[in-house]
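ESCALATION

Customer reports they have been waiting on this structure for their group meeting. Please prioritize. Original submission:
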Amino acid sequence: MPAVKPISDLQRNFDSIADSCHKTKEPVCLTKNGSASLVVMDAEVYNEQTRALTAIQEREDRIQQSIARGYDDLVKDRVRPWKQAKAEADRMRAIR
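Update from on-call: job pushed to the front of the queue and completed.
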């Protein structure tokens, strides 16, 4: 759970907030007039989270592309029954 502090603390206690972010690896939520305004966090943690989110997005994109290719194959009648595909694969393995 991120610490919540008024934004004025950033100006007065920057070193303290930075130390807190580095030590706890937790973000600090800064408020202005009682509402969330900014989030400050350790750069290393930010980079890790960004890499993780990028990896997830790339995986989701690959899945979406695979689904689209499969749908395209279905629409263009480039599919065959499972038994037929399995039989062909078995024949190809036997030839090797």
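Sent to customer with the following note: The mean pLDDT is 95.
Escalation resolved.
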